[in-house]
Amino acid sequence: MIVALQMCSGLCADANIEQLNQQLQQLPTTRPLLVCLPENFLVFAKSGQQTRAIAKQSDVYIQQLSNLCRQYDIWLAAGTVPITTEHDKYFAASLFFNNQGDVLAQYNKMHLFDVDVADGTGAYRESNFTEAGSDIVVVDSPFGKIGLTVCYDLRFSGLFSALQRAGAEIILVPSAFTTVTGAAHWQPLLTARAIETQSYVIAAAQAGQHENGRATYGHSLIISPWGNILSELKNGIGFIGCQPDLTQLHAIRRDMPVQSHQRFREHLL
Fold first, then answer.
1. CA 207 → CA 119, 153, 157, 237, distances in Å?
2. Which helix (H) or strand (E) holds 105?
3. According to the model, what pLDDT value does residue 6 have?
4. What percent of the chain has pLDDT over 70?
5. How distant is the alpha carbon of residue 269 from its chain centre?
6. C-alpha–C-alpha distance, residues 67 and 64, integer Å
7. Catalytic positions
8. What three-state secondary structure class fits 141?
9. Residue 2's CB: how many other CB atoms inside 10 A?
10. 260 burial class (0-12, 13-18, 19+ CB within 10 angstroms)?
């Protein structure tokens, strides 16, 4: 089973870990269980400087997450954890743990959110402090082959096509969408990515008004390879879940072999 946690993370990493711990206590007893967390679950800071300070302590928090995996016997897709780079910046790193607490994969957010939005923040410039990743990541698991993305990556279909070609059957989209862009584009983009790649899309979101002054859209979603909404949580803190049916997924891909018909494969990421 796969579940997506919807969170409202604040400024204090320790408090956010405690919020996570409390939510884990409420989860189904089904095992194996993959828990997917949203972007910025560990810290939703007011500035890049504050996030960079947490990045310098990332080993401590990664160990705490590892301990939670063993304590609750869960696999964990840890939305984003800031991890320092050689250039005095940090990666927005999505870490994938097994139930023994081992980090099996790290995906560094590839597309950075440098945009202007008509909301209370106005301008977002992730590249000021975040270093972009360059590698696509697909990891084997008991749930299927998992492709990793983060938030703004959702707008770049080439990445999702590349993940599908690399074997992904389930694609994770941990996010902290703004309320403005979320209302306009969140569900349509997630549905399109699921249909295009004929994959399950699991989107764990931040939701609500945060201590840093940001407001996020929420509406965590799980979407089938046919584009059906299997589970959703529009507002508040909580979780949604599903049991992926990979037999159905492969039947969809067999009956409508979209990727083999792709004429522009060489032009995609």
1. 15, 19, 24, 7
2. strand 103-108
3. 98
4. 98
5. 19
6. 5
7. 39, 109, 151
8. strand
9. 25
10. exposed
Return the axis-axis angle of helices 13-24 and 58-72, rounded to nearest 10°.
10
Nearest alpha-carbon partner for 50 in 172, 214, 209: 214
For 176, the token pair is 């902290």
Most distant CA atoms of the chain, gap in Å: 50
Q: What's the CA gap between 183 and 180, in Å, rounded?
A: 5
Which pTM value belongs to this model?
A: 0.96
Rounded distance between C-alpha atoms, residue 125 and residue 116, angstroms:
9
Q: Which residue has the tokens 């945009």?
A: 115
Tell me what percent of the residues of the chain surpass a pLDDT of 90: 93
- Rounded Cα distance, 75 and 3, in Å: 10
Q: What is the pLDDT of residue 265?
A: 65
Nearest to 240 by CA among 225, 230, 226: 230
Tokens of 213: 């002054």
pLDDT tens figures, 14-55: 999 999 999 999 999 999 999 999 999 999 999 989 999 999
- The C-alpha torsion from 204 through 207 and 210 to 215, rounded to 10°, is 110
